[in-house]
Specification:
CATH topology of the largest domain: de novo design (two linked rop proteins)
Number of strands: 7
Helix content: 25-40%
Structural class: alpha+beta
Number of helices: 6
Shape: elongated
Radius of gyration: 19 Å
């Protein structure tokens, strides 16, 4: 069945001379793996320039029944990112978002709101020159809602330690990574309460939040593991 759809490119793996296996998150069909033959001529319907991670694409797909890999016949960018690949700061955040999505969206079905959330974050990163320093933290926090693992912000004087296993605050101080200490728990509660890109936090607090949120993901997302992009992100954001 031939369909037209919008897609966010998550991953492209070269498979031969001019062939690629692509992982796409699409608006109407959710997570799709597709085979693509790339050409270099002006008339080619699929060019390598369109196959950059997090590109926002209009795609023509052939969905094959009883097959895990489908066919991409045509692709074009419906939104061109002009600043992300020219800024090391923005690029490090984009790579982190990209890797998080690859690790998190394993068998994701179509979800208009999730698609629009990812799309909006990419466009925000591209168009803004300020206020994007906390985008990766905001993204991690918001994404939990779409993955069905949103933590409960029930912090109070009695339940003051965040339990990464249960996704809520309790009176038990569990050792990391099963839980966060008092300082980290208070910081996480305040961030979840405000959940704003414009919140003012120090570099150290940003690191604490990132470490805590990633520990939470590692417990709740099977095979999430360690993200390679974290080291680069932490170094660049510290500049």
């Amino acid at each position: 069945m031939r369909i037209s759809d919008k897609a966010i490119l998550l991953q492209s793996i070269k498979h031969g001379d001019k062939k690629y296996i692509l992982k796409l998150y699409t608006l109407q069909n959710g997570l799709v793996t597709a085979f693509a033959a790339v050409g270099s001529s002006p008339k080619s319907k699929i060019k390598t320039s369109a196959l950059l991670p997090l590109n926002l694409l209009d795609v023509e797909l052939v969905i094959k029944q009883n097959s895990e890999v489908h066919q991409l016949n045509e692709v074009s960018c419906y939104y061109v990112t002009t600043t992300i690949h020219t800024s090391l700061f923005k690029l490090s955040i984009a790579q982190f978002i990209n890797e998080t999505l690859i690790k998190s969206l394993k068998e994701q079905s179509a979800n208009k709101y999730l698609f629009e959330f990812i799309e909006t974050c990419i466009q925000f990163l591209n168009t803004n020159e300020t206020n994007f320093t906390n985008l990766h933290l905001y993204f991690l926090s918001e994404l939990t809602k779409y993955l069905g693992i949103e933590p409960q912000n029930n912090y109070d004087s009695h339940n003051c330690y965040f339990d990464c296993r249960e996704g809520l605050f309790s009176n038990y101080n569990l050792a990391f990574p099963l839980g966060l200490n008092l300082e980290e728990s208070i910081l996480l509660s305040e961030f979840l309460k405000i959940n704003s890109l414009k919140v003012t936090i120090t570099h150290f607090q940003r690191q604490q939040l990132l470490t805590g949120l990633l520990a939470y993901y590692s417990i709740h997302i099977p095979n999430f593991g360690n993200l390679k992009s974290v080291a680069v992100l932490q170094e660049v954001v510290a500049i």
